[in-house]
Amino acid sequence: MTTSIGFIGLGTMGYAMAANLLNKGFDVTVYNRTAAKAEQLRELGAAVAASPADAARGRSVVITMVSNDDSIRDVYDGEQGIFSAVSEGTVIVDSSTISPDLARRLAVDATSRGAIFLDAPVTGSKPAAEAGMLVFMVGGSAETALAIEPVLLAMGRKVIPMGPSGSGAVAKLAHNTVVGINTAALMEGFAIAAKGGIEGSSFLELIQSGGAASRAAELKGGKLLEQDYSVQFALELMLKDLRLSSVLSDKLGVPTPLLEASKSLYQVGDAAGYGQLDLSAVAKVYEQWIGRAIGEKKQ
């Protein structure tokens, strides 16, 4: 492989994505604020950079995967940020979930430096990242997305062009609105069933066999019954995404009553201390309200 990649942000998703690039034979330089995560990838063949600028310098593709708008600004605009070192012709891919306005601004700033920026967030939580089965939704040049498709498909299974800069970010917020609402709906249904004396495993079997079948039930149902809230996608990050989606929908003039109700529910979960658990830990809020565990066997 001749493509050289700088990868910045090695959290739950980014670490697995960078590992897949390394396993597919790409030349990868990584940077992470917590250096220990970067050092773990050195064993797979990664070079470790001391700053985002060092990770970007001389690379043909730079990928960022960080948690929020503020972190993105630090990574791109800081004294040792990407824009201080990016080369003309470099393709910059941001796979974080950020506001569309910020994505569009980064595209303009990249263009002014002779680089090309794609907002390319992903769908698929930790298991999909580890398996290289992510789906990339891309805002920006479709021609550029096609040119770097081998890089993206080393981490995922599909690349979907969404339109001009910012479109990937819009699509991701709309998508995660559905995910957040679906997960909340699943937990609410389980709470009704549990309070009514229905055994959790029987209710899950019904969900998966009927019109309520969903990806949320497939991913979260069994873990819910086991009270396993290990992180596939953190509750605090879902809340962050729903807040961004709420701002976007206000700008677009789209009424979103289900979004607002779900956002409030995740806010309760975050305030209760569940933010760093999986988003399905919103079930614990319902457990407090109904006074029993969801999935608990009938006595």
UniProtKB/TrEMBL annotation:
Coiled coil: none
GO biological process: organic acid catabolic process
Domain 6-phosphogluconate dehydrogenase NADP-binding: 4-163
Membrane-spanning intervals of the chain: none
Keywords, in A-Z order: NAD, Oxidoreductase
Domain of life of the source: Bacteria
Domain 3-hydroxyisobutyrate dehydrogenase-like NAD-binding, first and last residues per copy: 166-286
GO molecular function: NAD binding; NADP binding; oxidoreductase activity
PROSITE patterns reported for this sequence: 3_HYDROXYISOBUT_DH
UniProt xrefs under Pfam families: NAD_binding_11, NAD_binding_2
Positions annotated as active site in the UniProt record: K172
Family the entry assigns: Belongs to the HIBADH-related family.
Name this polypeptide is given: 3-hydroxyisobutyrate dehydrogenase
Source species of the chain: Paenibacillus cellulosilyticus
